[in-house]
Design goal:
The chain is of the alpha/beta class. It is built from 18 helices and 10 strands. A hairpin with a 2-residue loop joins strand 9 and strand 10. It comes from Geomobilimonas luticola.
Length: 569
């Protein structure tokens, strides 16, 4: 709001103008009534005052348009700014944060929570300012007309404020709960839409519908609780105004009959009291809006206040370009309390080809993810070109690394755009070359639109192997000093694997390459192969050295070779 204080100030001035016109009308009514009562004493005719009332009403309506558009536009700008800050924050957060949060919950904060904050910053602020102006001005004018009558008229208001205060505290709790239930609902829908194939394949439609009904029921109940509270608030507000009006009609009417109050003053007083009724009623809605907005803002602050565990170094080392030398010094890593990787020490020279093998859950992917600092790593455990990885700026570090993860993610764009994502401003020739190296070019030419073919959400129109090869092409286009391939050939057959490995052999050059693979055939040309088990290196050496050891690697190699021979029959 501070960034838009000029706009809010202008909107407040417009509200002051529109309310000034509104407050003028009862006073003009007073003068008109007195003119009808005492035509000889009146300075102007009732028709004159009627014209002034029409002019004041028209001016009020005109200024009202500007007051609403000014304040509501400010709220839209705040929503826009918050959405940008949220998006930038999400991109700055690291993988540990996203492993804890649900996608549907994050999306709910971007939509429903932002809308609630916008409503608070727009309609909420507008009505708060409007209510303050109306109350202060109307009460001042009412006191001028009759101080004692004003005191009797506002008797119900303190009691109303106490009741509303108690209700609003409950409203905040219920509103926050409703937002959380909506987040669960969004997460449930997002998961089932993404897993539509699995749901249908296992005939789980009815079970998922029933689960959705339960989640939706909890969301409904939390909203119904808020509706019941709102149902109490508005009658309390309205009854306060109605009770005050009843007192004024009785006491004020008696005074008019007794001659201690003029009919014009009585009409004007009722006019100002009537102006207080709507702000009093709408106060309940404002309080509800404020509680919903406050609950939503607390959920947004959960994201905005989050801090990544992987951050840029406070004193970065002066690094222009990395050559690809990697060293692990007693590397240890854990996702929780139990160690996941331990006692890993290894020196990799620039240009070496290193293979990493091991059973599922042995820590292969975790090891290679630590090199680009996708997860936090302690100081003094990983060095690139002799520099602690934690002292290298993240942009420099990650620009030097081409990373192909296990799950190949493609954006809902064309094949060319997905490959070109690896290098900003990449030309069509560079994209085609990268696709050729990844053995994707022939597949692309079979599509009617070639590289302009849209792949659908998460690359749904491509096969698993095509998605993996597109991800490989994206990493190759980056021309990195270090290339990390985390089991990139799991979805292709043996022949395609040989073709891709053959193409990549000419690309490697002096790059440092780390290949994680369950298929040992993909690692046999590596200079060094690590065999991991339970987060530790249990064997290392070249393909021939490991076969000669006749250990875990050799046993796995024989098993895979036997399986390949059986499949040929």
């Amino acid at each position: 709001m501070r960034s838009r204080r000029g706009t809010y100030l202008l909107g407040g001035l417009f509200l002051l103008g529109t309310n000034s016109c509104a407050l003028l009308i009862p006073w003009l009514m007073k003068l008109a009534v007195e003119g009808l009562q005492f035509p000889l004493k009146a300075p102007h005719s009732p028709a004159y005052y009627a014209l002034l009332i029409i002019a004041a009403a028209l001016l009020q309506g005109t200024i009202r348009i500007f007051s609403r558009t000014t304040l509501l536009h400010a709220a839209r700008r705040i929503e826009f700014q918050l959405r940008e800050e949220l998006y930038a924050k999400l991109l700055a957060l690291d993988l540990p944060y996203f492993s804890r949060e649900r996608t549907g919950d994050i999306l709910s904060r971007f939509t429903n929570d932002l809308t609630n904050v916008r409503m608070l910053m727009g309609f909420g602020v507008l009505n708060v300012i409007n209510t303050v102006i109306i109350y202060v001005a109307a009460l001042f004018l009412m006191v001028r007309l009759s101080p004692s009558l004003t005191a009797f008229a506002i008797i119900p208001f303190p009691l109303m404020i106490l009741i509303v205060k108690r209700l609003s505290a409950s409203m905040f709790r219920r509103s926050k709960r409703a937002q959380e239930e909506l987040a669960r609902l969004s997460s449930h829908v997002e998961e089932n839409v993404s897993a539509a194939t699995v749901v249908r394949a296992y005939c789980r439609e009815d079970a998922q519908i029933e689960e959705f009904r339960e989640v939706n029921g909890r969301y409904l109940e939390s909203n119904m609780g808020m509706a019941r509270l709102r149902g109490w608030m508005i009658p309390v507000m309205a009854s306060a105004g109605a009770f005050g009006t009843l007192i004024v009609l009785f006491l004020g009417g008696s005074r008019v009959i007794a001659g201690t109050l003029t009919l014009g003053d009585f009409v004007a007083f009722n006019g100002y009291l009537a102006m207080l009724i709507w702000p009093t009623i709408v106060m309940g809605w404002i309080l509800n809006l404020m509680q919903r907005g406050a609950a939503s803002m607390s959920r947004l602050n959960h994201v905005l206040d989050a801090s990544g565990t992987v951050t840029d170094p406070a004193e970065p080392a002066p690094v222009e370009r990395l050559r690809g030398e990697i060293e692990f010094r007693n590397l240890a890593f854990s996702y929780g309390e139990e160690p996941f990787l331990a006692d890993i020490s290894l020196a990799i020279r620039p240009g070496m080809k290193v293979g990493i093998a091991g059973p599922v859950g042995s820590g292969k992917s975790s090891l290679v993810r630590l090199i680009p600092r996708l997860y936090p790593v302690a100081d003094g455990q990983i060095f690139l070109d002799g520099i602690d990885v934690n002292r290298i700026p993240l942009v420099t570090l990650r620009n030097a690394i081409g990373f192909v993860p296990q799950e190949s993610f493609l954006f809902s764009r064309s094949i060319g755009d997905n490959i070109g994502y690896g290098k900003e401003g990449a030309g069509a020739g560079e994209i085609a070359t990268a696709a050729r190296l990844a053995s994707l070019e022939n597949d692309v030419h079979r599509f009617p639109d070639g590289y302009d073919t849209l792949v659908g959400e998460r690359g749904v129109t491509l096969s698993g192997g095509q998605k993996q090869r597109a991800a490989i092409a994206r990493a190759l286009l980056k021309d990195p000093a270090i290339l990390i391939l985390d089991d990139p050939l799991s979805a292709v057959d043996a022949r395609t694997e040989e073709e891709i490995l053959g193409s990549l052999a000419g690309y490697y050059g002096d790059r440092t390459v780390l290949i994680v693979s369950h298929r040992l055939s993909a690692l046999r040309e590596c200079d060094l192969i690590l065999v991991l088990e339970a987060g530790r290196v249990v064997e290392q050496g070249s393909h021939d050295d490991l076969l000669a050891m006749d250990g875990r690697y050799a046993a796995t190699w024989r098993e895979q070779q036997l399986r390949a021979e059986i499949e040929t029959f």
